[in-house]
Design brief:
It contains ten helices and five strands; from the N terminus they run βααβααβααβαβααα. It has about 160 residues and is an alpha/beta fold. Strands 3-2-1-4-5 form a five-stranded parallel sheet. Helix 7 links the parallel strand 4 and strand 5. The longest helix is centred in the middle third of the chain and has 13 residues.
């Protein structure tokens, strides 16, 4: 399975001690150079920075279609733009992306997308997580991840925890 990830799923999972969930679910995680730079260079003290530099199941790649990246950067940040371009180039099975606008654009371009909350649900479905609710709490408290109340309820409902 080819999985490309943007920044948010990596730093937020790392912040709550659940980054290895990505390896358990998907094996190798491809990250664009822009995401690597955002996490490991600009944010070298943030959650996930050391892991993407040392854990061998993270693989950094440069999107080759620079024209597509530049077009996408007119609407998105560099990491999102390169993640979408790389997912298209690699014919990725899945793109991990949380930002609403980026997800909409990726879907318009035919990319299958899920976000951090979708990853948690799949983790529970596959038996890697006992419960999602405590992790949602940790995401909001520790990582500062914002979850709309309606979405929070939908996730808990999907997880069978409501």
């Amino acid at each position: 399975m080819i999985v490309v990830s943007n920044t948010s799923p990596i730093i937020n999972l790392a912040a709550i001690g659940q980054l290895e969930l990505l390896r358990h679910l998907y094996g190798t995680i491809i990250i664009p150079h822009a995401v690597y730079h955002e996490v490991a260079v600009k944010g070298d003290k943030q959650a996930g920075a050391a892991e993407i530099q040392t854990w061998q199941w993270f693989e950094s790649r440069l999107a080759q279609d620079r024209a597509l990246v530049r077009r996408l950067e007119q609407q998105l940040d560099a990491g999102e733009a390169e993640a979408i371009a790389l997912a298209i180039e690699m014919r990725a099975d899945l793109l991990l992306l949380d930002e609403r606008r980026g997800r909409a654009i990726a879907r318009q371009l035919g990319v299958t997308v899920t976000g951090l909350l979708g990853v948690l649900l799949v983790g529970k479905q596959h038996g890697h997580l006992v419960a999602v609710k405590p992790l949602l709490g940790a995401l909001t408290r520790v990582a500062g991840f914002w979850i709309d109340e309606q979405l929070y309820r939908q996730v808990l409902e999907s997880a069978g925890e409501l």
